[in-house]
Give the backbone structure.
Amino acid sequence: MTLLHELNEFNEHSEHSEHDDQYFMQRAFELAQQAEQLDEIPVGAVVVYQGIIIGEGFNQSILLNDPSAHAEMIAIRQAGKHLNNYRLLDCTLYVTLEPCSMCAGLLVHGRIKRLVYASPDLKTGAAGSVFNLVGTSQLNHMIVVDNGIMAQQCSELLSGFFKRRRSEKKLAKNSNK
Ligand SMILES: [Zn+2]
């Protein structure tokens, strides 16, 4: 690899600062923790525009009796209100778990520029794991995707939550005997 090549690659990679990615994913993680405290599946999301958070959300489907109340959905609704626009051009969405098909579709409709997710969702992920709705040329918008930042922390939060919920169910079952 030539020096020029190396420099080009460096520039490509430093276009989005990793420091910023870490910072915003940390905020998404905190939101996921808020969801957990309310017994919701711990997923959190933030929308960032020009280096500023303009939308935040965490999973609230059970609380709101709303299957669409995913972290991404709530964060994007807030961001749209903030920008006073239904298109979120030049925005980045950070989320602790790979978006589902509903949310991936929403990101395309919202014209989100870049998606950064922490843990992949190998069962239902729609940003590359099972489907790839955010990078499909048949749709009219494609999204730049990065993943892996804080992946372990975010997936441990999820697996800890499901483990706790399983044991709580077991306990409830036993106490009913
Ligand atoms: Zn979703």
About this structure: Strands lie at 44-49, 52-58, 91-97, 114-119, 144-147. The mean pLDDT is 92. The pocket of zinc ion is lined by residues 70, 72, 99-100, 102-103 (CB under 6 Å).
